[in-house]
Specification:
Layout: E1 13-18, H1 22-33, E2 38-41, E3 54-55, E4 61-62, E5 71-72, H2 75-81, E6 87-89, E7 94-98, E8 101-105, H3 109-116, H4 122-132, H5 142-167, H6 177-180, E9 197-201, H7 205-212, E10 218-221, H8 226-229, E11 235-240, H9 244-247, E12 257-267, E13 277-279, E14 288-291, H10 292-296, E15 303-311, E16 318-319, H11 323-337, E17 342-344, H12 356-374
Parallel strand pairs: 1-2, 1-11, 2-10, 7-13, 11-17
Antiparallel strand pairs: 3-4, 5-9, 6-9, 7-8, 12-15, 12-16, 13-14, 14-15
Helix pairs in contact: 1-12, 4-5
């Protein structure tokens, strides 16, 4: 599937896809299924993008780029991916280290009772939140979202420090969408996600991507910069999933991203922590520690974990949601919209903080648009 490819190809490709993560791989599979000839390239030595997983030296299936927990409410997305993998049901749970305790996050009834030594019911905790919440006339920032729901103390204990580490900015400087992603619950539901479908690929993400890209119409080139090979190829259309500002040589300046450093450890013990992920909002330089055996369901005498250290430089992971960044992206978006020979799709190419399932949905929608376009008169080779 990842054979090396001679550039002396007997016929042109229909599509050159840049990036073998979710967006590129879904589009490669869908287009190949219609008979299109697809070349997909990636600068990394593996497929799967940031969702790539592999077995470490002690046989634990780890995620080198941090934990990727699959969850979605989309039946279409789940059924599509189910063509390439069986699933293991998994509901992710997260605790936060606050005031010397490990407490459920998202904040729920147990979080409040354990933190404050109370014995509230679900009905009473609603009144508690109402009593501590601050009135916010217009919700603009991530701080507004949280203090408007649960008040200043819970905001300071669970959100402010974590956000400052994660983004290098105070929540008052970030768009409301950042903390709006995390719910507040009045019951004892301690699942991190509440989506209809929560599961992990039974044999890992990499196996799923291998199945997705196994079509005979798909050729894969790894360790490859598309800029070096594009002039040597004939293809009808490019699909680009990398950073949109890099595509245009940062002509308007760099779009801000946050990056991460991952430090992996293996421990000579069966269990390292009580749940899949523990957040550290207020202490240490890292934001969280994740233990892969919870996520993979493996049973082994040793265990592997990863520490996440947010940083300003490095591979782009998270678009920074601030109004001035959105305005800068609009300039690149206008350039992208003007390129009829290139389709931009995915988190980096559209400067969006998408979950995996949202990227899959975007790729499937893009495929439908490309199909409509293919029904139009044939384009000239580029």
């Amino acid at each position: 599937m990842t054979e090396s490819l001679s550039l002396n190809v007997p016929a042109p490709f229909d599509y050159l896809i840049v990036g073998a993560g979710f967006a590129g791989s879904v589009l490669a599979e869908r287009l190949a299924s219609t008979g299109a000839r697809v070349l997909i390239v990636d600068r990394r030595p593996h497929i799967g993008g940031n969702a790539y997983d592999r077995y470490d030296d002690v046989g634990i299936l780890i995620h080198p780029y941090g934990p990727h927990i699959f969850h979605t409410n989309s039946k279409d997305v789940f059924e599509y991916l189910s063509k390439f993998t069986a699933w293991r049901p998994y509901q992710h749970r997260v605790l936060a280290s606050v005031d010397g305790q490990l407490l459920p996050i998202p904040i729920n009834l147990d979080t409040v009772n354990k933190l404050y030594g109370l014995n509230l019911t679900s009905f009473q905790v609603e009144d508690f939140f109402a009593s501590v919440a601050e009135k916010v006339e217009q919700v603009r920032t991530s701080e507004d979202v949280v203090v408007g729901k649960v008040g200043r103390d819970l905001y300071n204990k669970f959100f402010r420090g974590y956000t400052r580490k994660q983004w290098g900015l105070d929540p008052s400087e970030l768009d409301a969408s950042v903390t709006a992603r995390v719910p507040t619950r009045t019951n004892r539901d301690d699942r991190y996600f509440a989506d209809t479908y929560q599961a992990m690929p039974l044999h890992g993400y990499t196996r799923m991507f291998e199945n997705m890209l196994a079509h005979p119409n798909i050729k894969v080139m790894l360790n490859t910069d598309y800029r070096e090979i594009a002039p040597l190829l004939e293809y009808r259309h490019m699909i680009y999933t990398g950073p949109v500002d890099a595509f245009f040589d940062h002509c308007y300046g760099k779009l801000p991203y946050r990056s991460l450093e991952f430090r992996h450890e293996t421990h000579d013990q069966e269990v390292f922590q009580p749940v899949g992920t523990v957040n550290y909002p207020n202490d240490y330089g890292y934001t969280r520690i994740s233990e892969f055996k919870y996520i993979t369901g493996q049973v082994a005498p040793r265990t592997s974990v990863v520490y996440e250290y947010p940083q300003a430089e490095g591979d782009p992971y998270y678009p920074v949601p601030r109004p001035e960044n959105a305005e800068l992206y609009k300039k690149y978006e206008a350039l992208a919209d003007a390129r009829e020979d290139v389709t931009f799709v995915g988190r980096l190419a559209t400067y969006r903080y998408y979950n995996m399932d949202q990227v899959v949905a975007q790729a499937l929608a893009t495929f439908r648009r490309l199909q409509e376009r293919a029904a139009a008169p044939e384009e000239q080779l580029v």
